[in-house]
Amino acid sequence: MPVPELGRSDSTFELKEIELPELKEDQVLLQTIFFSNDPAQRGWIQKDQDADRLYIPPVRPGDLMLAGALCKVLKSTSASVKEGALVQAYVGWTEQAVLDAKAVTSLPDLPGLSPSVFLGALGGPGLTAFFGLKEICKLEEGQEIIVSGAAGATGNVVVQLAKHVFKASKVIAIAGSDDKCEWLKKIGADVALNYKSPSFSADLAQAAKPSYVDCYFDNVGGSILNACLSLIKKHGRVAACGAIAAYNDRSQTVLDNWVEVIMNRITVQGFVVIDYYSRRAEAIDVLSTAVKEGKLSVSGGETIVRCTEFEKVPEVWMRLFSGQNTGKLVTQIADL
Asked: Enoyl reductase (ER) domain spans which residues (predicted)?
């Protein structure tokens, strides 16, 4: 995939300098420290989208690129948010921002852990993994599951929770390199398969048969979804979480095995984590307890890229689409 270039007539992104407004009452001035890089951002900028079909407003030409971030409060006119505090907010791709205090979330102190974990295992990806397993997969002790995109931000948490918290009897993980597969076996996968291997399809079928699996947690769509449909038990479930295989090429979504959904009465359900934000505390309690008990490892679960040139921020984000990250991909643009 080509690296995005700035300053051309056909560039997707343009670098601009803006003047920030003066703080009003109950507002904060933020310095961005870490950006969250998410495959969903690709969908937010898709050209000529029907906004009625999206779960958030699209990013239109001329808009600030939307992104979640961890920030330090430089100034505050709010009694509830103190200067120097670390907060989480959707500031977009910007070095600094002025927001209403109610638009930021203060972060607790976790000794020994980088605050960036709140963009990964204890953030949106962790919540996605937890609610996807509990509410969509409805995974029960002793059941079997396949997880694609397993070395990604959400996938690695799914693998660990499925094995160590939900107590699945078999977790089959799919990733894009042998090194990633070895890491996945260390953190909980019973079987880890490299989808680039010539024997992948046969290896996947061998891992799932003869019992077949109860659930497939789909982070990629495309040909891997197609392959997994024929390996799910009758009345099994698919948690449709992502489709990164087709975000830049819709032709990748060819489902020759779709008849399996009918023949085996498989439930395929899409979900978006924002639907569960009202239950965030429930997930954070489970996730933080899992970290404390050693059931959820955050070591090795993030790739932090230090970006000294702000115009390189889109280039770091693009690494998602070529598999250059293990776990959560985070861009750091300033010191804590």
From this structure: 8-331
| Ordered alpha helix ranges (H), 38-92 | 40-44
Cα dihedral sign, 44-104-313-24: positive
Q: What are the pLDDT digits (tens) for 141-184?
A: 999 999 999 999 999 999 999 999 999 999 999 999 999 999 99
The CATH architecture one would assign to domain 124-274 is: 3-Layer(aba) Sandwich (3.40)
Identify whether the C-beta of residue 54 lies closer than 8 Å to the C-beta of residue 68: no
List pLDDT tens digits, range 267-285: 999 999 999 999 999 999 9
pTM listed for this prediction: 0.90
Can you tell me the distance from the alpha carbon of 327 to that of 33, in angstroms, rounded to the nearest whole number? 19
